Amino acid sequence: MVSPHSRLVGVLVSDIDNPYFSVIARGVDDMATRAGYVTMLSNVDRRTTTEISRLRAMRDYRAAGVVFAGSGHVDDPQAPNLVKAVRRAQEEGLHAVSLAVRDLGCPSVVVDNRAVAQRHPTTSSHWGTGTSRSSRGHPA
To answer: What positions does the domain Periplasmic binding protein/LacI sugar binding occupy (predicted)?
Structure first.
């Protein structure tokens, strides 16, 4: 019997140049590989319209799922269109998950940064000092 879906999982990242997203993409790929899936990485440049077009492409490729790795925008006028596209993809059997709190109509997987910082105060910041820093590396 032929499966209606491929072993493909789309990973839509907001900004591929940001090291944060490369770590996420690597983790998703590692887990997908262990489960017998292959990932297709797509940079969406923080554009909802690009997320919608990439989601359509995943549907065309009969992907098993898609991972949204990015937070979206506040008051995004395209957000309702993305929600509709996610719903349509889910109706066709494509699984979707967001790695940020987004109202997409799919499950979200998020990290409780405060709990992590409380448990591991010396490793909670990017700089390893346990203090908050600005984007220029100065104490905030």
So the answer is: 9-119
Distance, CA of 44 to CA of 11 (rounded, Å): 10
Helices (H), the chain: 19-34, 48-60, 79-91, 113-119
How far apart are alpha carbons 51 and 53 in whole angstroms? 6
Sheet holding 38-43, edge to edge: 38-43, 8-13, 65-69, 95-98
Crossing angle of helices 79-91 and 48-60, in 10° steps, is 10
Cα-trace Rg, the chain? 17
pLDDT tens-place string over residues 127-137: 443 333 333 34
Domains and CATH numbers, the chain: 8-109 (3.40.50.2300), 111-140 (no CATH)
